[in-house]
C-alpha cells in the first residue's frame, strides 16, 4: 500500500471496459480525491494495437503495446488489468506482481484457472489483487462476502451470474421465440458474443460460482466438480410449461451446505416466478446469499457491460488508494487457508426435477419411460403431454413432461442413459432441477 | 486503530440485539480470528438492570450498570453501543469517544439527531464510528455507498426502510384486512412496537433516509425538509384499487436528483407490482440505488430483527478489527465536507398522483372536486367510484379515486385545502405519488 498522496496507475487493456475506466477516472478526479485524500493519476496505457482509434481522449498519457514500459516504470504503484483470456494475461499479471505492482483485475477466467498461484505469489510479495469487477460486474458481491457477511456462516448462494443466458431465457418467454432466434438477435445487438459457447453452456457462470464458493465456503471447486448444464437445449415449450406451473427457468448457479457437505451446480432450474430470482429479467444478475445470522440478502443489477464493470474497477481503485484493499486481500489470504467443506458427490445432489422428452407419438412410450424411472426409484409427481400452438411439431412426435418427487442426480443419470436407448426417443432429453 | 493482536471490546446494552451480538461473538471466535488475524475479546457488558435474567451465557465477563467501568478501563479499545433513544445514548457515546474508545452503534435516531456533532468529535479525537447496523439491519447499504458505489455519481435512492410498515401494507392486501386489524396482530406477535407511531408515520424511514442522503449526496436533510406522510390513513380499498391498476402501495423513501436539485420524500407510493420494490413483501427492506456508471443496483433482505442487526454489528466489529473501518470513517468525514446539493422546495416535487376522497354520496360532489383540481391546474387522467365488498361502507358515503397527470406537490396541497373545506367531504383524504 503506497502511502504518499499521489497514486500512479497504469491501464493494461483499453477495449470496452478499459475506455469506460478512463472515462470514469477523468470525470471523477475531484470526488476520488475527496474520498481517498489522494490524487490518482493515470500514467500509462498498454494496448494491443497502438494505432487503433479509441473512443476516449488520452491526452499526453503514453500509450504503448509493450507492458514492459509499465513493469520497468518504478513510479507506477498499480495496474488496472482489463484484458480477457489466459494468455498473455497470466504472464502479464505475474510480471506486474513481481515488479512490485498491485493489480486490479476484471479477468474472471484468469482467477478461476490461476487464482491460487497468483494469490500465493501476491501474498509472498506482499502485493494486493483486487477483483470486484471479475464477478457480477457492478454488483458488489465480493465486497459483501468479504465484509458485510463476515459475521455469518454462509449457508447457501443462489445466483444468476450470466447475463447473456438470462437475456435469452427472458426474451424467449416474453416474445414466444425460439432459442436460435433470440440468440441471433442478441448477437446482432452485441449482447452476446460471436461465440457464445461459454455463456450458454454454463462455463462462465460456473467459473464465477467457483470463485464465490471458495471465498464463501473455503472450498476450491473445479468445473468438473460442478453439476453443470447449459441452456442450449431448452425449448420454448419448457419455458411455457414452467410458466403455467408458476415457475421461471433460470440458469441458476448454486452452492449450498447440506449435511456439512457442499452441493455445487450450474443448471437451468425452475425457480418460483414470484421469488426475486424468478423475477430477475433481461441481462441482469442477482446473487442471493443466506447467512446463519443475517438470513437471506439479495444483491442485483447489471452483471456485465462497459460502465457497470468499469464502475466496479474504479471502486477497486478507490478502495486500493485508501489502503482498505490491501487489508481485505490479506484477510482473504487468511480465510482461504481455512479447512474447506467437503464436496457432496454429484450423484448425491437431491432435488425435485422437471424432465422433458421428445418421443415418437406411438403406443407404450410413456409406459417404457415410467418403467425405467420406477426401477431407478424415481417417483413421478405429475405427467403431461400437451400440444401447443407455439411449438412447431414435427409429424409423429410428441413432447412429454414429467415432474418428479425428490430424487438424486445419480438416479436420474442412470435412468437417463436407459431412456436414451429407447427406440421411441427423438432428439434432446431435458432435465432441470426445481428450486423451492 | 489498535495494532496489537488482542482486541478488547465492551458491549453497552444487552437487550434483543445485544444478546444476538454476544451469541455471534461466542460462536464465531475462530472465523473472526482467521479473518482479522486478531483475537477479539468481549471484556465488559453494560446493562440497565444487572439482575435481569438474559438469554445468553456471559460467563466471567463483568456486567455492570455503570458505563464508567468501560470508560475508565484503559484496556478497552472499542464499545458496541446497542441502546436506543437519545438519552443517555448521546452522553454515553460522547464520553466513550472522549475516553479514546471507538464506537460501533446501531442507534439510527442518535445519528440522525446528533450525527454531525458526534462525527466531528470523533474526527477531532481521531476515533472511529461504525454504523452499518443503524440502517436497514443486515443489508450492507452503508458499505455499498462508501465502497462499491464510490466510482459513481449517485442519481437516486429508492427504498423501503421500515419493515413494520411494509409488513402491514403487505398483510392488509394479502389477507384483505384493515389497517387496525393487521397492526393489532403485528403488535401481538412482536413485529410492531407497542407504540408504532415512529414506524407508521414515516419518522423512522425518514431518519434513515436522511443519513443515507447525506452519505450519498452530501446534503443534510432534517425531518421538516422531507415530504413525509405515514400509512395510518391507508385503507384496504386503496391497496385494492392500486393492485387492479398493476401497482403495490409501499412506504417509499426517495432521494433523487432532478435538475441539480435534490427531491427527498417518504410517502406511501404506488410502485409497479412487477418491479423489485413492488415485490418486496413482509418485513423485508430494499434499497435501489442508481449510479451514473453502474446503473441501478438493488440490495434487499431483513431490515431489522435480532440476528440480522447483530450480524451487521459484528461485521462492523470485524471491519474495525482489521483497520478498514478507521479508513472508511476518515473517508466519510472527507466526503461529508463536499459541497451539498441544494434541496428542491417541497412544493416543486413533480409526480403523478393517486388521490382518494371519502365523500357524501350526493349530487355535484365530483363536479366540485374536479373544479378545484382544474383551477389548480391539476389534470385528471382517470376517475373511479367503485363499491367493493371488501370495504365496510358507511351509509350514504362513497369513495372517489382520481389519478392525475404529472403535477406538483404545491398545487396538490393548495387544492387539498380547498377540497377539505367542501361540505361533502367525509373523513380522510389520501394523496399518494406514483413511482414510474
Provide a quick synopsis of the model:
The first copy, chain A, is α/β, with parallel strands linked by helices and 436 residues long.
Describe this entry's structure for a reader.
- The structure is a homodimer of 436-residue chains.
- By secondary structure, chain A is of the alpha/beta class.
- Chain A has 3 domains: 6-137 and 308-335, Rossmann fold; 151-303, Dihydrodipicolinate Reductase, domain 2; 346-435, 2-Layer Sandwich (Alpha-Beta Plaits).
- In chain A, 37% of the residues lie in helices and 26% in strands.
- Chain A has 15 helices and 17 strands.
- In chain A, the strands form 2 sheets. In chain A, strands 7, 8, 9, 10, 11, 12, 13, 14, 15, 16 and 17 form an 11-stranded mixed β-sheet that branches. In chain A, strands 3-2-1-4-5-6 form a 6-stranded parallel β-sheet, sandwiched between helices.
- In chain A, β5, α5 (108-124) and β6 (129-130) form a beta-alpha-beta unit.
- Chain A is elongated.
- The two termini of chain A are 46 Å apart.
- In chain A, 51% of the residues are buried.
- The model of chain A has no long low-confidence stretch (mean pLDDT 93).
- At the A-B interface, α2, α6, β12, α12 and α13 of A face α2, α6, β12, α12 and α13 of B.
- β12 of chain A pairs antiparallel with β12 (295-302) of chain B, so a sheet runs across the interface.
Amino acid at each position: 500500500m503506497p502511502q504518499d498522496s499521489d497514486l500512479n496507475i497504469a491501464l493494461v487493456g483499453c477495449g470496452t471496459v478499459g475506455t469506460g475506466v478512463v472515462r470514469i477516472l477523468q470525470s471523477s478526479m475531484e470526488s476520488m480525491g475527496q474520498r481517498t485524500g489522494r490524487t490518482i493519476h493515470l500514467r500509462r496505457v498498454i494496448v494491443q494495437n497502438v494505432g487503433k482509434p479509441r473512443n476516449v481522449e488520452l491526452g499526453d498519457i503514453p500509450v504503448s503495446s509493450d507492458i514492459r514500459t509499465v513493469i520497468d516504470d518504478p513510479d507506477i504503484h498499480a495496474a488496472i488489468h482489463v484484458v480477457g483470456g489466459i494468455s498473455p494475461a497470466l504472464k502479464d499479471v505475474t510480471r506486474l506482481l513481481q515488479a512490485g505492482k498491485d493489480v486490479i483485475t476484471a479477468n474472471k477466467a484468469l482467477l478461476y484457472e490461476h487464482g491460487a498461484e497468483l494469490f500465493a505469489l501476491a501474498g509472498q510479495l506482499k502485493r494486493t489483487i483486487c477483483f470486484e469487477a471479475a464477478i457480477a460486474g457492478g454488483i458488489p458481491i465480493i465486497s459483501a462476502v468479504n465484509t458485510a457477511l463476515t459475521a455469518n456462516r454462509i449457508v447457501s448462494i443462489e445466483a444468476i451470474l450470466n447475463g447473456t443466458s438470462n437475456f435469452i431465457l427472458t426474451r424467449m418467454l416474453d416474445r414466444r421465440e425460439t432459442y436460435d432466434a433470440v440468440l441471433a438477435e442478441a448477437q446482432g445487438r452485441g449482447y452476446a458474443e460471436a461465440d457464445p459457447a461459454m455463456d450458454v453452456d454454463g462455463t462462465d457462470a460456473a467459473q464465477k460460482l467457483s470463485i464465490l464458493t471458495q471465498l464463501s465456503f473455503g472450498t476450491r471447486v473445479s468445473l468438473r466438480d460442478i453439476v453443470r448444464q447449459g441452456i442450449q437445449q431448452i425449448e420454448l415449450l419448457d419455458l411455457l410449461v414452467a410458466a403455467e406451473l408458476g415457475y421461471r427457468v433460470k440458469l441458476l448457479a448454486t452452492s449450498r451446505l447440506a449435511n456439512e457437505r457442499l452441493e455445487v451446480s450450474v443448471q437451468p432450474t425452475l425457480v418460483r416466478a414470484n421469488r426475486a430470482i424468478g423475477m430477475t429479467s433481461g441481462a441482469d444478475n442477482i446473487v442471493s446469499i443466506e447467512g446463519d445470522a443475517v438470513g437471506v440478502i439479495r444483491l442485483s443489477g447489471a452483471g456485465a457491460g462497459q460502465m457497470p464493470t468499469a464502475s466496479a474497477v474504479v471502486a477497486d481503485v478507490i478502495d486500493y488508494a485508501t489502503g482498505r484493499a490491501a487489508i481485505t486481500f490479506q484477510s482473504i489470504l487468511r480465510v482461504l487457508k481455512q479447512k474447506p467443506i467437503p464436496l457432496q458427490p454429484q450423484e448425491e445432489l437431491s432435488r425435485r426435477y422437471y424432465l422433458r422428452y421428445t418421443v415418437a407419438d406411438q403406443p407404450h412410450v410413456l409406459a417404457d419411460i415410467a418403467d425405467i424411472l420406477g426401477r431407478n426409484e424415481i417417483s413421478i409427481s405429475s405427467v403431461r403431454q400437451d400440444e401447443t400452438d407455439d411449438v412447431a411439431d414435427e409429424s409423429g412426435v410428441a413432447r412429454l413432461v414429467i415432474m418428479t418427487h425428490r430424487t438424486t442426480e445419480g438416479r436420474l443419470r442412470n435412468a437417463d442413459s436407459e431412456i436414451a436407448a429407447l427406440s421411441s426417443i427423438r432428439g434432446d432429453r431435458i432435465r432441470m432441477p426445481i428450486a423451492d
